[in-house]
Every structure is written in structure tokens, then in C-alpha cells.
Amino acid sequence: MRRIGIAVLGTGVLTALLVAVKSQLPAAVPPAAATHPSGPSTAHAPAVASQPAPGVRVVDPSRMMDGSHLGAVFTNPFGPVQVRADVRGGRLVDVVTVRLPTAAARGIEIGMRAAPVLREQSLERQSADLDTVSGATYTSDGYRRSLQSALDAARTGRPAA
Asked: What is the value of pTM for the model shown?
């Protein structure tokens, strides 16, 4: 009987805590966006392009210098990540993974799975605005940051820091 009382009390406390925390979170949809437009329907309006991730800039291809540009090394808990961006005709034509985590079998497996996906996104988007590969958060972040530094080097003509 005592266990039931503790379970009910714990559930009540947890529920109250969740409600209190949820009330402190910002609303997912601003009130202005939740109202219906007074003009024509926007159901068939084109989708608005998403903003790049913080710290990521969309590359202006006309400003990139041709050549191979080495990105900075970014170390995560599984090891270092570094890429090289190859630019021809002002366009990103290849991204070569120079370093991936090799300290543990799991890190190697993650890097080998994530690198081709991230490379394909890079070439497709011509930027470092990449989606995170599921299960490879640290590797994706290091890849994205190293690629951004390589693209910055391509624009400035200076080696990545």
C-alpha cells in the first residue's frame, strides 16, 4: 500500500514539474502566425527557404578562388575531423575527407558512414549548411566546421586557421 502512495505522489510531482517547465518555454508558433490571414489563401504559397545554421555562411561561388583549400582540424570526443574543399571555376567540385576519428572502431564506423552523406550534401548545396547525419552528430559538426573554414579560405585566399 505504501508503494502505491509513493508512486501516485511521484507521478503528481512529476506532472506538476512538467507543466511548470512547459509553461516557461516559448511558444512554438508566435501568436501572429497562428491567426488566419485576412487576404487570399496562402495554402499554395512557395516554401520559404530555411536559414543556414549559426556560424554557417552560404558561399557566393563567384568569390571563391580555384584550388584545394584545407579546412581547420576540429576535434570531437571521438577524434579529429578535417576536410579539403576543391574549387574549380568558382564552384565547389569536391570535398575530400582528410581526417576522421580513428581511435575506436565505433568512431571509424560512424565516420565512414557519415562522410559520403556529408560530401554529397556539400556538393549539392555548395555550402557548409549541412544536415546532421543521424548517429553522427559530433562528426557532422566537425565536418561542417572544417568545410566552412575551407570555404572561408577559398574566399579570402588565406589558409584556414
From this structure: 0.61
Q: Which of 118, 112, 150, 149 is nearest to 131 (CA)?
A: 118
Identity at 154, one-letter amino acid code: A
Give, for 80, the enclosing helix (H) or strand (E).
Answer: strand 79-88
Residue in 21, 79, 56 with CA at minimum distance from that of residue 131? 56
- Letter for the amino acid at 119? R
From 76, 74, 77, select the one nearest 145 (Cα to Cα): 74
Give the 3-state secondary structure of residue 54. coil
DSSP 40: S
Dig out the grid coordinates for 150 from the structure. 575551407
Which residue in the block uniquely carries the three cell numbers 577524434?
Answer: 79
Which strand (E) or helix (H) includes residue 83?
strand 79-88
Would you state the cell numbers that stand for residue 44, as one nine-digit string?
499554395
Comparing C-alpha atoms, which of 161, 141, 160 is closest to residue 85? Answer: 160
Rounded average pLDDT per 10-residue block, the chain, 161 residues: 70 56 43 38 40 54 83 93 94 95 86 94 95 94 96 84 59
Angle (CA) 60 62 133, round 5°: 40
Q: How far is CA 57 from the centre of its chain?
A: 12
